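Suppose a colleague, Dr. K., hands you the sequence of a protein chain of 248 amino acids and asks what its three-dimensional shape might be. Before reaching for any lab equipment, you can write down a predicted structure in token form. Begin with the sequence itself:
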Amino acid sequence: NTALAYFYCYNNQLTALDVSSNSSLVALYCANNDLTVLDVSTNTALKFLYCSDNQLTTLNVSTNTALEQLSCSNYEGTKLTALDVSNNTALTYLNCAGNELTALDVSANTALTTLYGGNNDVATLDVSTNTALEVLSFGSNELAVLDVSANTALTYLACGGNDLTTLDVSNNTALTLLSCYTNDLTVLDVSNNTALTYLSSGANNLTALDVSSNTALETFYCHGNQLTALDVSANTALTKLKCQTNQL
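The predicted structure, expressed as tokens, is then:
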């Protein structure tokens, strides 16, 4: 089947998959199987690779330079400890969440619009070259710093469960969702983020939080901080508010 271009074999019990002869393959969807090895080195035309939740310990996509979408998240299967996407400059979508990655270099992936990398062990993340990013989900890692000043297209930023002490979102005026709960933030300025409809900032060390500019807010969580006052009189669209365990 050398002419095979699209192959869907997900949600089975496959332990082996040989696609070495399928040089015309454009899309491979093999998620939720029991694969321990996946060799896509000859599939240089591959644009879409979804191989999440298998038993892979390594994944080599260095020859897949046409790759536009890669999903290798692992919430159920064996975890990847490393992932090199430096040759995949056409990538627009990357989901590598739920692995055991300690590093992730996306500096070459300037076309990225969506990055899911939550539930890993990454301590540093540089997204300064990823100016097309619209969705960045990188919660439950070990980030002490996250600079999103260059990511002005962001509409979705989830960075909860890290070790952030500061977070500057003043340049991210397109944000509609900001989730930064369970960090070590003492200050959070969202005055420029007037498009926000969802703000989750609970379990930090905030003593004040001004949401008077965020009139589109529908969901607002600020519980578990040290707030002594909270004014939501301007937030007439609010349908969910959690502010318990403060000093109000």
